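ok so I'm stuck.
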Amino acid sequence: MSEELDLITVDTEDSMNKAISHLELELTKIRAGKASPTMLDGIMADYYGAPTPINQVANISVLDVRTISIQPWEKNMLAPIERAIMMANIGVTPQNDGVLIRLFMPPLTEERRKEFVKRAAGEGEQSKVAIRNIRRDAIEQIKKLQKDGLSEDAAKDAEKVIQDITDKFIALVEKHLAAKEKEMMAI
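replied:
not stuck anymore, here's the structure
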């Protein structure tokens, strides 16, 4: 029985780590006034009829704190990349000079910063819900083991371990959100 409890604990921790990784990925997509190539992750350009990530058809680099440069490997990809960025509605208008596309990040207003903080908080809440769902599933597995002969004390101890892991990951979500809010609200 204890191997099964250890397996439940390990699976729970792995799943919660995945929820944190997802949160980190989503938070990198929320810009904080600084230019970052990750802002373009998930934006697909039409490459000979196939939707393709921009970073697979162009070189993306950060020129300075507020400027991203996108240099397509093929000159005929300028228009599709520009169109994809416009369609993605990331709050930046691409500047095409015939050789490369530049994205100039406008300074964020207080209102826009607060909007981004709310968006980050929403992502954090989704992560917390995912973590709580993982906890619920783990506790249900423990209860099934209890019906199959696991002692009540062992079940209570295992539930406490699962709750401690959950608390640790919820605190980690809060830490990520606090860091992102601090980054976004800094002028």
